[in-house]
Write a structure and sequence with these properties.
72% helix; mainly alpha; Tetracycline Repressor, domain 2; 10 helices
Length: 200
């Protein structure tokens, strides 16, 4: 017997649908990427023509991700290299990383939030680990009282906070932020780099 949309049966089905959808949302899902057909259409060619250069739509998206990741890494590392001291390097990385993400929200989401791609490649993980270690060294230089473990923890927390800033700004809706993104990022770096000044 088919459950109707009215009465107790309808209410039960509605609740069952909500529970089923909730269960399906428990696992992380890959960020949406443009389809092969959409890309081909944007180039004014047939989908078949794409296969002359890429074995599959997945291969095309991987090339896109690699390109944007390389750009993000180049931008941030160049900014860090141009900075003179440890605190300046932390500020340079944080500002440039957030700036790249906010000016490239789609690529940022695909590169740093695409679950399937991140599982299959070590490129992003390796860079993030190396950058976290470098940030830890700069945090120790800014606060000589902390050890290596605490410095790495702070570096991870700072990076997590930067992701929070990016996510909030990208999905702000109608929210009006009280401070500029530069002020917010600089303030966040201060929290982790100058924590020793606030200790009792």
């Amino acid at each position: 017997m088919t459950v109707g949309t009215a009465g107790k049966g309808g209410r039960d089905l509605r609740q069952a649908l909500i529970e089923a959808a909730s269960a399906l949302l428990q696992e992380p899902r890959p960020a949406p990427a443009p389809s092969l057909r959409a890309v081909a259409r944007a180039c004014g060619v047939s989908a078949t023509a794409v296969y002359l250069h890429f074995d599959s739509g997945t291969a095309l998206i991987e090339a896109v991700l690699e390109r944007h990741f390389a750009e993000a890494r180049t931008w941030t590392e160049a900014a860090v290299a141009a900075a003179e001291g440890p605190r300046e390097r932390l500020d340079a990385f944080a500002r440039t990383y957030v700036d790249w993400a906010l000016t490239h929200p789609g690529p940022y989401q695909l590169v740093f939030e695409s679950v399937d791609w991140l599982k299959e490649t070590d490129t992003v993980r390796t860079w993030m680990e190396n950058r976290t270690a470098a940030m830890g060294e700069d945090l120790r230089a800014a606060d000589p009282t902390i050890g290596e473990t605490e410095a790495l923890e702070r570096a991870e927390q700072l990076w997590t906070a930067l992701h929070g800033i990016i996510s909030g700004r990208c999905r702000q809706g109608r929210h009006v932020w009280r401070r500029s993104v530069t002020e917010e990022v600089t303030s966040m770096v201060t929290i982790f780099a100058d924590a020793h000044r606030h200790r009792s």
